[in-house]
Write a structure and sequence with these properties.
Strand order of the largest sheet: 3-2-1-4-6-5
Shape: elongated
Radius of gyration: 25 Å
Strand content: 5-15%
Number of strands: 6
Structural class: mainly alpha
Number of domains: 2
Largest sheet: 6 strands, mixed
Number of helices: 20
Order of helices and strands: HHHHHHHHHHHHHHHHHEHEEHEHEE
Mean pLDDT: 93
Low-confidence stretches: 189-194
Distance between the termini: 74 Å
Oligomer: single chain
Length: about 500
C-alpha cells in the first residue's frame, strides 16, 4: 500500500479519536453502558459473571474484556477510554484496507453508527464491528488463513446476538462456497492463491461451529428469566411493516432534530417519506441484491444476514437504532468483500456491468446520509444532557451523602447513579432487594409501575430497621400528599435529559 494511504488512514483515525474523545468527555453514560460495567465489576469470578449474563440476552466477550479494567479502578470512565480505542482501531483498519474511495472512507468514519452508536456509547457492539473489520481484511486470502478466519468468527459470535446472526450467515455462505469448490461447481481460489489446506479449512469451520453453539448456549435464558420471554410467530401486518421500515433506519440513520433525538428518525417526521417508506426500503434492499448478484457468496451472506436480522426483530425483540445498525453493517461487510468472491457471468452485458456502475453512487449516497446523521448526533449530544445519572452522583458526593442508605425506583435508571457513585449497592424497590446491576428475573418482572406509596413503604421499613436517614432516588416526582405525610424533603431535581426516563428526583426521609 502506498505510504500516502497509510498516512491518510493514520491521520483520519487520529482525527476520529480527537472528535470522539471530546464528545465522549461530554457524554453521560446511561443504564445499558453502566449495566455491563457493574456486571463485570460485581462478579467475583468468570463463572459468576456468566451466571449473571444468562439474564442479559448477550454473550459475554465484552464483559470479559471489562473484568480486568474493573480490577484496576471502579470508575467506569476507563471503560469509555477502552471503547474509544476499539473504535479508533476499527477506523484505522477500515480506512487502510477497505475498497472504498477516500471520500467514502471519510464519510464512513464520521457516520452515525461508527461515530456515535459504536464509539461514544460504550457498548459491546464496537467490539463486533472491529472483528467484522478484521474478518473483511482476512477474507481475500481466506483459504490461506482459514484458521484465523475461524478464530475471528468464533469471537464475533460472542459479542452480541446480532453479530451471532452475521456469523451464522457468513458460516453458511463459506460452507456453501467450499462445498461448491469440492464438487467442482465453481472455483473459489482467487488468482495468485495456492490450493486451500483442507485441514486448516476444517479447523476453521470447527471453530466457527463451536463459536455459534457456545454463543447460543449462553443466550439460552434460565427458567426464571423475566425479560423479552415471548416469541411472535403470528402474522401481524402492522408489525411486519414496522420491521421493514427498519431498513431505512439502518441505511439512512438521520436522527430527529430534538431533545429526545436518540432512536428517533428525522425522515419519519415528513408525511411524504412516510407514504413511500416501505417501497423505498424494498428498493434499498433490492439495490443490495443487484450489487451482489454476480457474486453468489456475497449475495448469500447479504440475504441470510438481512433475513435473519429482520426475522429476529419481528419474532423476538424489536430493538433500537444500535441493533438496527447491523443491517447497515451487513451491507458494509458484503460491499467490502464481494469483489473477492467467485463471480458468475450473465449473458446480458447490461446486467454484467450493473454492479460496477451501481456500487460507488449507492455507497456514496448511504455514507452521506450516515455522515449527516453522525454530525447531527454529536451536535445534539453536546447541546443536551444524555442522562442525569452522572450529575446526580456528583451531587450526592458533593453533599457527603454517598454512604447513606438509598432506595432506587425505577431500578434500571437508578443503576446509572450506582455506577458513577462507585457504590456497592442500593435497595431497589423492583424485586424489593439490594443490588447494583439489574437482575432481569421473574422476581423483578413484570416491569409494571410501582405505586409511590409502595416506594415510601420500602424506604420507611429500611429507616425503621437502620434508624438513619434514607435517600430516595426517583426518576419521577413523588405524590405531594405522600411527601407531606412522611415529612420528606425534596433535595434536588434533575430533568430534561436525552434519555427521558433518566431524569431524577432526590428525596430525604429523615431518621425518626
Amino acid at each position: 500500500m502506498p505510504t500516502k494511504d497509510k498516512h491518510y488512514a493514520l491521520g483520519l483515525a487520529l482525527l476520529f479519536l480527537g472528535v470522539s474523545a471530546f464528545t465522549a468527555s461530554h457524554h453521560e453514560m446511561w443504564r445499558d453502558e453502566i449495566q455491563a460495567w457493574l456486571l463485570a465489576r460485581d462478579s467475583g469470578s468468570v463463572f459468576e459473571l456468566f451466571a449473571h449474563l444468562k439474564y442479559e440476552g448477550h454473550p459475554g466477550l465484552w464483559h470479559l474484556c471489562l473484568m480486568p479494567l474493573t480490577r484496576l479502578t471502579h470508575s467506569p470512565v476507563i471503560m469509555q477510554v477502552f471503547h474509544l480505542l476499539i473504535a479508533g482501531i476499527t477506523v484505522y483498519l477500515f480506512v487502510r484496507y477497505a475498497p472504498f474511495n477516500l471520500l467514502q472512507k471519510f464519510l464512513f468514519c464520521f457516520g452515525y453508527f461508527v461515530l456515535y452508536e459504536y464509539a461514544i456509547l460504550a457498548r459491546n457492539y464496537a467490539l463486533g464491528l472491529l472483528l467484522i473489520t478484521v474478518f473483511c481484511i482476512l477474507f481475500k486470502a481466506r483459504y490461506k488463513r482459514f484458521i484465523w478466519v475461524g478464530c475471528v468468527l468464533f469471537l464475533l459470535a460472542h459479542t452480541s446476538v446480532h453479530a451471532l446472526i452475521l456469523t451464522i450467515a457468513v458460516g453458511v455462505a463459506l460452507c456453501c462456497e467450499y462445498v461448491c469448490h469440492c464438487c467442482r461447481l465453481n472455483p473459489f481460489v482467487q488468482e495468485g492463491e495456492t490450493t486451500a489446506d483442507k485441514r486448516a479449512v476444517w479447523i476453521g469451520f470447527t471453530l466457527i461451529g463451536i463459536g455459534i453453539m457456545t454463543s447460543v448456549l449462553q443466550l439460552n435464558p434460565p427458567p426464571d428469566t423475566g425479560f423479552a420471554v415471548e416469541w411472535k410467530f403470528t402474522y401481524e401486518p402492522e408489525e411486519l411493516s414496522k420491521v421493514i421500515k427498519l431498513i431505512s433506519h439502518a441505511f439512512l440513520p438521520i436522527p430527529e432534530f430534538s431533545l429526545n433525538f436518540w432512536n428517533k428518525h428525522q425522515l419519519e417526521t415528513y408525511p411524504v417519506f412516510q407514504s413511500i417508506q416501505i417501497p423505498f426500503c424494498c428498493l434499498l434492499m433490492l439495490c443490495g441484491v443487484l450489487l451482489f448478484l454476480k457474486r453468489p457468496t456475497a449475495l448469500l451472506i447479504y440475504l441470510v444476514a438481512m433475513f435473519g436480522l429482520l426475522s429476529f426483530f419481528y419474532i423476538k425483540y424489536y430493538g433500537s437504532m444500535r441493533h438496527h445498525g447491523f443491517l447497515f453493517i451487513t451491507l458494509l461487510m458484503t460491499g467490502w468483500i464481494y469483489k473477492d468472491c467467485p463471480e458468475i457471468d450473465f449473458r446480458s452485458k447490461s446486467l454484467n456491468g450493473l454492479p460496477q456502475r451501481l456500487f460507488s453512487p449507492f455507497f456514496t449516497f448511504i455514507f452521506i446520509c450516515h455522515f449527516i446523521g453522525g454530525i447531527t448526533a454529536i451536535g445534539l449530544e453536546h447541546r443536551h444532557v444524555f442522562s442525569y445519572g452522572k450529575q446526580v452522583a456528583e451531587y450526592i458526593n458533593a453533599n457527603d451523602m454517598q454512604d447513606m442508605q438509598m432506595v432506587g425506583e425505577i431500578d434500571y435508571a437508578a443503576s446509572t447513579i450506582v455506577g458513577y457513585l462507585e457504590k456497592d449497592e442500593i435497595h431497589y424497590v423492583h424485586g424489593n432487594r439490594p443490588g447494583s446491576f439489574v437482575r432481569w428475573d421473574n422476581v423483578r418482572m413484570p416491569d409494571v409501575d410501582i405505586p409511590d406509596s409502595q416506594v415510601v413503604e420500602v424506604a420507611n421499613a429500611l429507616r425503621n430497621q437502620a434508624s438513619e436517614d434514607i435517600l430516595i432516588i426517583m426518576n419521577r416526582a413523588l405524590d405531594p400528599e405522600l411527601i407531606a405525610q412522611h415529612n420528606l424533603n425534596l433535595l434536588a431535581e434533575f430533568i430534561g435529559s436525552i434519555v427521558d426516563d433518566e431524569g431524577f428526583y432526590l428525596y430525604l426521609m429523615p431518621a425518626l
